[in-house]
Please model this.
Amino acid sequence: MTLPTKPIPQATPLSRSYWEAAAEGRLVIQHCAACGKARHYPRLLCDACYSDAVEWKPATGAGRVHSWTVAHHAFHPGFAGELPYTLVTVDLDAGVRALGQWKSVGTPFIGQLVQGRFIPRDDTADLIFESGQD
Amino acid sequence: MMSLRDKSCVTGVGETVYMRGSSKTAFELQIEASLKAIADAGLTPKDIDGIIPVGIVSGTADDFIENFGIPDMRFSAIIPHGGASPVMALQCAAAAVAAGVCNHVLITFGRNVSAASNKAGARIHQMPQFHFVTEFEYPIGAIAPAQLYAPMARRHMALYGTTVEQFGEVAVACRKHALLNDNALMKKPITLEDHRNSRMIADPFRLLDCSLESDGGAAIIVSASERAGDLRQPRVYISGVAAGHPDSPGSITQRPDMTSLGIAKAAPRAFQMAGVTHDDIDLTQIYDCFTYAVIRQLEDIGFCAKGEGGPFVENGRLQLGGALPTNTHGGLLSQAHVWGLNHIVELVRQLRGQGGRAQVENAEVGLVSGYGDMGDGALAILRRG
Model:
């Protein structure tokens, strides 16, 4: 019997640059090439100036905890073996928020300094966060 | 500018038995509820000239035209906002009948979640409005609504001191009311202690913080007020109705304030249209996908200040006999989850004086909220004619 596999992201033309960078372990965030506004997740238009010109800028993955939850129930069988696991929502220094898996011991707290990075698995890479240095 | 105040009435309501493991399809359940609502109004299926099928998880407007043999359907719409859709459909139907586009709009929903391999975790990832979640959050383990909502609740607790006991107050009130309702799935009383001891699902949500997966159908009829007087039931007017959306509706993570959602924008508009204040509201039906969602909506609607929703629900305020009876049918938490169309059905029954053992004495004005797709909101204020 094979273990149930976890879902993998289905990249779109809008997000392909994000996932290509993730596969190389780099976090990049979409910015408007006209006015510079950062946006996440990737979208067609800048909601400030309506330009569709895009540039992808590297982000450090540093940020602060906005909120978190601990999953105690596997709503997908692929995660059953990982319970309990913590998901953390992070205000990135890049000016947008991201969701990732928490990989430090204990639960995070709101405002905590964290550092994000990608770890590879199968055909994709998972964004994870660890406790950072204040 | 024309207001929709009192231009339309809810003239018919219908529900199937709510259960788990129904042998009927979603469309069969929807048809059954629709026929009941049409009969309740004193209409025949051929009188329906507008249809809003909620969500399209069951029948389409064309399915109804064919099965009912509707000779002259003039209006249909689809409202793609999850559990906010039924109350948004009230707004849409009220606008359609007020403008004279049609006379009697059927708003209808049916679901069978037991039959399909269609569990909470898998379902949302088939819906286009959740494409951000599906691409960026699902693969790392944010799968079902409980996990997506939980960080909102956790932040509310951290910022405002909202407690597990306050979540429990909502669960206990809904369960208490469900025990008065023969058509409620949950039959066993619960205490705050039972709530606190229930199994953790997605911190801070325990099992008794989460709504019920259930099968069933519900339907209502919205008619132009000038046509409602000829019908069977006492008039229940749609006095105020409005919709609102959170900033960044498709991705919770990108919202400037996770603890305030679309209904905060809708509420002042609905109250202004109705010309009433919060003190005029005799009872509320608040969309309760999770206990926390009720606390936050009470704040967003303006019953209390931001952050005070927790203390507001204490001491049985939401229970029958309390100052603001809420979810007198048992809600999604203890009656059944039919996307909140059951909340509208219940409010209409209460305002007609047909609330049975859960009847709120002298209920004249009530409020129903819709809430869905992780933050879209809607609010309707109904009053007895």
In short: Chain B has a mean pLDDT of 94.
